[in-house]
């Protein structure tokens, strides 16, 4: 059997395609502009082009290129391949109708739930296991991908989510008696069948991903997961006909999982040794030396798969040497799904910034150079090593990166925790805002119409000038303000028409960030984002939102709420620095935003919302690291409004998560009003927030669905909220921003929301009068 390739990448290559070909194919298929056959043809050529390109970039050995394609999501693919989700597939591909029904739902059934893949911004589909589900090997799709590559001259390495991780990520369908992991034995036998089919097709290496073994799970201990892995891999490796197995453990360091996997009989183990990981677990290299026997081939993921910085190749080479073994390959720490395709297309980036970056293609070149250097000495790839050296030096010296004024300012903060005065003092001072009982407001954005998007694109392309652009935005603000007044909203927003994206907008207006033109990264399915790149110390050259908010204020006599994105969310949705701690960047952004708060206040804006929808997202996978994270993230949030006058009302907004784990941190944000996603869970979140002593706005209108909630339904939700939150603290608002919705449904839903609030108030009027006596 062939040895493991000396250079490889861990799993999925950015499958969306260099020019988002997959997105286009998917959207055309869904809109019936192309048929299934044409779809298959386009994704086939996307796959073959990818293999070809990877080979050009240096992955020339057999089995070095992972067969890492998915129409939509790799968790769904594996779940179908092992029958964790029942399917009727008989052909070589998945049944596309069935596949996309699972991914996106139909009129008759909701899609699978979607949630974040470990601590990344990729979202996977959560398989639901029924008691009645009989697992079954359905390797046809995988086999066809392998065969198709082989026909084109590439021996690619099939990749599956491993059995332990698959079950750890799955959930039980409602009413199911057994927990997913209780069915591990049964599932393992199906993996055995899949592996046998791959072996029969001539596959010599298969990759099984087990990131669940590096994360702390809410309901499974490290030891339980390790034990599960030991059992599962003992059965898998005992199978008679199978390819050699490489297990990957990306996104952090293995603990109990390390001896379990190393001793399980698998031929190769791929571990995350990226700079980030090394920084927080320096003993990992030592444990790998001690605990991985020579008989197990070690694949060292030294090139960071998630960040975008040029690798410090010399440092990586040192780590490779320190591992002290012959049987060693070089790889990326994680899949490259999290980074864009190539820096080459980014002609508008400052040249020095571009020279510091490695996206997927550049990372493949780095991996190959490290492997070549190990085999033949570092002089064999002089250009790649020279680029790495230069990047390290110029970044360290760059005045674009290091701004002494900024670092002095954060240093001067000392241990200040950013606390404002007592919440009760603030409440008294804020009575001057004259906010009525059960006030209505929205979360910020209004639907982004085609005209708004066109004006932005025209402005960017130079087809219209700044004045014309401003005109178009003001016209939209006029309309949004008028709509809110007509509907009877109490606290008015300007609607955020000028923002393409709540993070990118601030990144474009802050020094220290760069944005890309084509740096698309798959978020889920056909959805991609272009994360900004934080490369240096952050400062605010001039006010960002003040003109828009004050313009809105001139159009109404009601209170206007200013709208900022918080430091944690800006960091969570950007590529961040590896040369300073995240906490330092968070403080810098917080101080820049604090200046914005000061300017908004000075301009007469008395209510300011600082959105932190991603607060939960950055929570570390390891329990032990969570307190430190919550500490700096909460502190950064508070710094934004630390200097605000007591009479200025600070709002925050959170969404996208179960908040249970971070409920104390939400309290510690100390916002005067917190709006929070709640409609889907029918106000479940409120029981957690019962202790909360400040304003709270559990979303009553689920904006993730095109449905218009009825007045009756909204009344019920408001009453449910009132059973927990006293009526002088409850705010009435939607779940999230309205940006992705259409005006017709939004207008109807918001009208119902105000009507429902009025109805609740009217019904409570006698009680209210009583309480005033
Ligand atoms: N203010 C933002 C908006 O309304 C908040 C979006 C979010 O929470 N994701 O669009
Ligand atoms: Zn939200």
* SS element count, helices: 28
Number of domains: 2
CATH architecture of the largest domain: Alpha-Beta Barrel
Structure summary, number of beta strands: 22
List bound small molecules: glutamine, zinc ion
Major sheet strand order: 1-5-7-8-9-10-11
Let me know the average pLDDT.
94
Radius of gyration based on Cα positions = 27 Å
Distance between the termini: 87 Å
What kind of sheet is the major sheet?
A: 7 strands, parallel
Low-confidence stretches: none
Helix content, binned percent: 40-55%
Beta-strand content bin: 5-15%
3D shape:
globular
Cofactor: Zn(2+)
Keywords: Amino-acid biosynthesis, Metal-binding, Methionine biosynthesis, Methyltransferase, Repeat, Transferase, Zinc
Protein name: 5-methyltetrahydropteroyltriglutamate--homocysteine S-methyltransferase
GO molecular function, one term: 5-methyltetrahydropteroyltriglutamate-homocysteine S-methyltransferase activity
Provide a quick synopsis of the model:
This is 5-methyltetrahydropteroyltriglutamate--homocysteine S-methyltransferase. This protein is α/β, with parallel strands linked by helices and 773 residues long.
What does this structure look like?
The protein has two domains: 288 residues, Alpha-Beta Barrel (TIM Barrel); 311 residues, TIM Barrel (Alpha-Beta Barrel), CATH 3.20.20.210. The mean pLDDT is 94. The chain is an alpha/beta fold and 773 residues long. The strands form six sheets. Strands 1-5-7-8-9-10-11 form a seven-stranded parallel sheet. The radius of gyration is 27 Å and the shape is globular. The chain is built from 28 helices and 22 strands. It binds glutamine and zinc ion.
């Amino acid at each position: 059997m062939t040895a493991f390739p000396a250079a490889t990448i861990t799993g999925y290559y950015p499958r969306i395609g260099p020019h988002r070909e997959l997105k286009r194919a998917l959207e055309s298929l869904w809109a019936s502009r192309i048929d299934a056959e044409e779809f298959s043809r386009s994704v086939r050529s996307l796959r073959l082009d990818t293999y070809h390109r990877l080979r050009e970039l240096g992955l020339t050995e057999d089995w070095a290129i992972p067969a890492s394609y998915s129409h939509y999501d790799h968790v769904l693919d594996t779940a179908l391949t092992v029958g964790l989700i029942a399917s009727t597939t008989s052909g070589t591909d998945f049944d596309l109708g069935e596949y996309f029904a699972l991914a996106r739902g139909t009129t008759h059934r909701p899609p699978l739930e979607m949630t974040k893949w470990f601590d990344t911004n990729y979202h996977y589909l959560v398989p639901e296991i029924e008691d009645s589900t009989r697992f079954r090997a359905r390797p046809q799709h995988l086999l066809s991908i392998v065969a198709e590559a082989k026909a084109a001259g590439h021996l690619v390495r099939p990749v599956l989510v491993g059995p332990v991780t698959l079950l750890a990520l799955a959930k039980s369908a409602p009413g199911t008696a057994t927990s997913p992991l209780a069915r591990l034995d049964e599932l393992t036998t199906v993996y055995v069948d899949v592996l046998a089919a791959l072996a029969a097709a001539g596959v010599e290496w298969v990759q099984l991903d087990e990131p669940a073994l590096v994360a702390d799970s809410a309901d499974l201990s490290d030891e339980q997961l390790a034990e599960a892995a030991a059992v599962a891999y003992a059965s898998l490796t005992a199978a008679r006909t199978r390819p050699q197995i490489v297990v990957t453990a990306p996104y952090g360091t293995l603990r109990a999982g390390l001896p379990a996997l190393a001793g399980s009989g698998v031929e190769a183990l791929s571990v995350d040794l990226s700079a980030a990981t090394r920084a927080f677990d320096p003993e990992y290299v030592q444990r790998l030396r001690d605990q991985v026997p020579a008989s197990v081939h070690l694949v060292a993921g030294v090139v960071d798969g998630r960040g975008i910085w040029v690798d410090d190749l010399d440092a990586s080479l040192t780590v490779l040497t320190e591992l002290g073994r012959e049987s060693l390959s070089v790889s990326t720490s994680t899949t490259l799904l999290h980074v864009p395709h190539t820096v080459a297309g980014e002609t508008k980036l400052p040249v020095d910034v571009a020279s510091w970056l490695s996206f997927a293609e550049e990372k493949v070149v780095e991996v190959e150079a490290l492997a070549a250097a190990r085999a033949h000495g570092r002089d064999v790839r002089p250009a790649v090593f020279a680029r790495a050296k230069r990047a390290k030096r110029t970044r360290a010296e760059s005045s674009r990166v290091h701004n002494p004024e900024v670092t002095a300012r954060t240093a001067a903060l000392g241990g200040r925790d950013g606390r404002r005065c007592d919440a009760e003092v603030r409440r008294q001072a804020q009575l001057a805002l004259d906010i009525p009982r059960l006030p209505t407001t929205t979360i910020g954005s209004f639907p982004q119409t085609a005209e708004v998007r066109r004006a932005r694109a025209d402005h960017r392309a130079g087809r219209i000038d700044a004045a014309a652009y401003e005109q178009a935005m003001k016209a939209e603000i006029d309309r949004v303000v008028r709509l809110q007044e007509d509907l009877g909203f109490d606290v008015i927003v300007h609607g955020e028409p000028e923002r393409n994206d709540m993070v990118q907008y601030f990144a474009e207006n802050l020094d220290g960030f760069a944005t890309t033109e084509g740096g698309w990264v798959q978020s889920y399915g056909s959805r991609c984002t272009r994360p900004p790149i934080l490369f240096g110390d952050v400062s605010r050259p001039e006010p960002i939102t003040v003109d828009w908010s004050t313009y809105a204020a001139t159009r109404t006599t009601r209170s206007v709420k200013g709208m900022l994105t918080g430091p944690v969310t800006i960091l969570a949705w950007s590529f961040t620095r590896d040369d300073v701690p995240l906490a330092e960047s968070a403080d810098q952004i917080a101080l820049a935003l604090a200046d914005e708060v000061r300017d908004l206040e000075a301009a007469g804006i008395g209510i300011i919302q600082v959105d932190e929808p991603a607060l939960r997202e950055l929570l570390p996978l390891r329990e032990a690291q969570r307190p430190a994270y919550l500490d700096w993230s909460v502190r950064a949030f508070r710094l934004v409004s630390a200097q605000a006058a007591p009479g200025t009302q600070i709002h925050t907004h959170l969404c996208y998560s179960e908040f249970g784990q971070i409920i104390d941190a939400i309290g510690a944000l100390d916002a005067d009003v917190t709006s929070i996603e709640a409609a889907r869970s029918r106000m479940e979140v409120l029981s957690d927030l019962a202790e909360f002593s400040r304003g709270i706005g559990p979303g009553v209108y689920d904006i993730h669905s095109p449905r218009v909630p009825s007045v009756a339904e909204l009344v019920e939700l408001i009453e449910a909220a009132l059973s927990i939150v006293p009526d002088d603290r409850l705010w009435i608002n939607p779940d999230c921003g309205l940006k992705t919705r259409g005006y017709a449904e939004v207008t109807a839903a918001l009208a119902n929301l105000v009507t429902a609030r009025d109805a609740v108030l009217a019904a409570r009027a006698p009680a209210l009068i009583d309480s005033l006596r």
